[in-house]
Design brief:
alpha/beta, globular, 4-stranded antiparallel sheet, 36% helix, 12 helices, single chain
């Protein structure tokens, strides 16, 4: 089996529930994404996707991804997509870095591996521990009273794992967390996520202000060193996200005593191949883990669902379906939220069927 043709499409997603506000006043109203289609010499087709919630959040905004795919796609022609590590090595030989662009092609290779073997991605990632898994609900930054109301609504919808976006000012953020915890007694996890926005001094003040509350702190500062210093001075457990880019970052964070749980982004790590290694390392170290992404639609949601289903339940921080934020649909069979949980697709590969007529502008064909 060899890859004989690669197509690249631009996608535009709009948020189904309106603008989403993150730390530092960043507001996302939609997402620019990229979808890739890989076809083999025996007619199998695999799909991959990469997308960001906003270009101010992370590397890998759509125009740079699409430009890099012009260099990476030819490197995969003739490769056997079932040999995912070898295919990834071809991309690494073609260009150093640009993990986010490699992520889309890597996902498509795993989809082809599943379709070729007749196995769902979750089985290829180690096996399905539970077909149904819990999701978390993200609450965007708003006035404390509004966030508290959204938390109450999330509980009523069945969610028991809640992430609170924070990252404006010390007093405002402390008040937000306190207000939300007033209605979250029934939650299993509550996580306050600053997306690395606080200074170390401001983070220390907020954490001290909520030390008496049952809340986890996510990525309070940008650097691993800052987060580790704060964790070592606090009784609150920490989740790290933005400072984790590769396996070594998890090792360093654990050695520094700065991490209690792990959030891995598919596109930041570079796709399913490296994210699988990161997930398995976290599980080996006994760290609860979520594998998700910073945006995307049906394809990304399917991939993250397979990771959630193949993670031991005791070490699953939560599942997340990025595509649930998007109004547009490009595939059928995509997992959907249901009372705070979701079920993994069980068809081969990603387990979804793409509607090619729903794709955006065709940008590139390599054959």
């Amino acid at each position: 089996m060899e890859i004989r043709r690669i197509d690249v499409y631009a996608m535009r997603y709009t948020h189904s529930t309106g603008p989403f506000v993150l730390s530092g006043g960043r507001v996302s109203t939609g997402q620019e994404g990229t979808v890739v289609r890989l076809e083999t010499d025996d007619g199998l087709v695999g799909w991959g996707e990469q997308c960001l919630i906003t270009p101010t959040y992370s590397e890998g905004y759509a125009p740079t991804t699409q430009a890099m795919l012009g260099l990476l796609a030819p490197a995969l022609l003739g490769a056997d997509p079932r040999r995912v590590d070898v295919a990834y090595a071809r991309m690494d030989a073609a260009t150093k870095g640009y993990r986010y662009a490699k992520a889309a092609l890597d996902m498509a290779c795993w989809d082809l591996l599943g379709r070729a073997t007749g196995l769902p991605l979750a089985d290829l990632l180690g096996g399905i521990h539970a077909e149904e898994f819990p999701l978390y609900m993200g609450i965007g930054i708003a006035a404390p009273e509004e966030m508290r109301q959204r938390c109450a609504e999330a509980l009523a919808e069945g969610y028991r794992r809640i992430q609170l976006k924070v990252g404006t000012g010390v007093r405002e953020d402390t008040t937000r967390i306190e207000a939300c915890l007033e209605v979250l007694d029934d939650a299993e996890y509550v996580i306050a996520d600053a997306n690395g926005w606080w200074t170390q001094a401001d983070a220390a003040r907020v954490i001290a202000g909520v030390e008496h509350l049952d809340v986890m702190i996510e990525q309070p500062c940008a650097s691993l060193d800052e987060c580790a210093r704060l964790r070592n001075a606090s009784a609150r457990p920490f989740v790290l996200d933005e400072s984790l880019v590769q396996l070594d970052d998890i090792v360093k964070a654990r050695a520094a005593g700065g991490i209690d749980a792990v959030r891995i982004k598919l596109s930041r790590f570079g796709g399913i191949t490296p994210a699988r290694r990161g997930r398995d390392l976290a599980v080996t170290l006994g760290l609860p883990v979520t594998v998700e992404d910073a945006g995307g639609g049906d394809l990304v949601s399917a991939a993250t669902a397979h990771f959630a289903a193949s993670t031991p339940p005791a070490l699953l921080l939560a599942g997340f379906l990025p595509g649930s934020m998007a109004a547009e649909r490009i595939a059928t069979g995509t997992p959907e939220p249901n009372r705070g949980s979701a079920s993994v697709p069980t068809a081969p590969g990603l387990g979804v069927q793409v509607n090619e007529e729903a794709l955006g502008e065709h940008l590139l064909r390599v054959e």
